[in-house]
Design a protein that fits this description.
Length: 313
């Protein structure tokens, strides 16, 4: 099995160099690296082709965010696509060997979700998986999952060929995962396969990122959920996004923009994208957990991080 590492980047030259070096050190050598550059202007365009002539490098004249990953998939030739961020790398050099072994042993698995380790937060685990599981005695075929972390995930090519790429930045992993599950593909979570996320400090506009999540939360809700569940979930999205805006000190005018954006997204999604998941598929997508539970868990996690910082001082 050939692995195609597809990295979408923008103005993260140093992060990208660290990532490329990491993949070159993988013990599994049947791989290729494809870089899709969303109009970087920090010297990436000049440095990467010079330092790594064997890496496929595509520079785009505009920033198409994570949607441009589909170009990398198109130019790749592997049966497995490793989707990652330019500021994240596998924790160990044998990660790809483990992934290939899983795919060979369990052909029904189509997507392998990994553990997300936040390096700049003292190597804390980003607990994105909603269920409590045994992370020591892990089943050989992993745990059923309704999503994955975008910092490191292995996806069979046939999934992209069937459902397409990612639909915009922000919660895009869960939109992709939901479409994959509806199409009949299987996602498994392996907490023993870990990805180090360095969380680059470049290109992080808090206001823009908050607006993206406003739109994508609502889009996800009205795309996949039955009408009345979508209505109830919408009220929760509004509440938690306002709470997030308060905690992150989002500009009040941006908050108003976000409220309007969510309202317009409801109508647009209902009119053009609605594909309600069957009950059995929706159960996998949510793993039986409500949006209220997930957001409460998220805010509790953020509170614990802030308390650690306070007590350290």
């Amino acid at each position: 099995m050939k692995i195609s590492v597809v990295i979408v980047t923008r103005n993260r030259k140093e992060d990208l160099i660290r990532a490329i070096e990491s993949y070159k050190n993988q013990t599994y050598k049947n791989l290729e690296i494809i870089i899709v550059d969303n109009c970087s202007n920090d010297g990436t365009k000049e440095e990467i082709p010079r330092l790594y002539p064997d890496v496929k490098y595509i520079w785009l004249p505009e920033n198409f965010d994570i949607r441009s990953i589909i170009l990398g998939v198109y130019w790749s030739s592997g049966e497995i696509i490793w989707r990652c961020d330019s500021d994240s790398i596998p924790e160990t050099n044998d990660t790809f060997e483990k992934i290939v072994e899983i795919f060979r042993k369990y052909p029904d698995i189509d997507i392998i979700a990994t553990e997300d380790i936040e390096v700049r937060r003292n190597y804390q685990v980003w607990d994105w998986y909603p269920l409590q599981v045994d992370k020591v005695n892990i089943p050989p075929d992993g745990y059923v999952s309704g999503g994955f972390s975008g910092t490191g995930v292995a996806i069979k090519r046939k999934v992209f060929e069937t459902i397409g790429g990612f639909n915009g930045f922000g919660y895009e992993e869960y939109d992709f995962a939901a479409r994959a599950i509806i199409a009949g593909f299987n996602i498994r979570y392996f907490p023993n396969i870990r990805t180090l996320h360095f969380a680059s400090i470049t290109e992080r506009d808090v206001n823009s990122r908050w607006l993206c999540t406003c739109q994508q939360f609502i889009r996800f809700t009205w795309k996949f959920f039955p009408f009345f569940r979508a209505v109830g979930r919408t009220f929760l999205v509004f509440f938690f996004q306002i709470l997030e805006a308060i905690l992150r000190r989002i500009n009040p005018f941006v908050v108003l923009e976000g409220m309007f954006l969510m309202l317009t997204t409801i109508f647009q999604t209902y009119r053009t994208e609605r594909m309600v998941a069957p009950p059995d598929k929706l159960e996998i997508i949510t793993l039986g957990k409500s949006f209220f539970y997930l957001q409460t868990k998220y805010f509790w996690h953020m509170l614990k991080l802030k308390l650690r910082k306070v007590f350290k001082k």
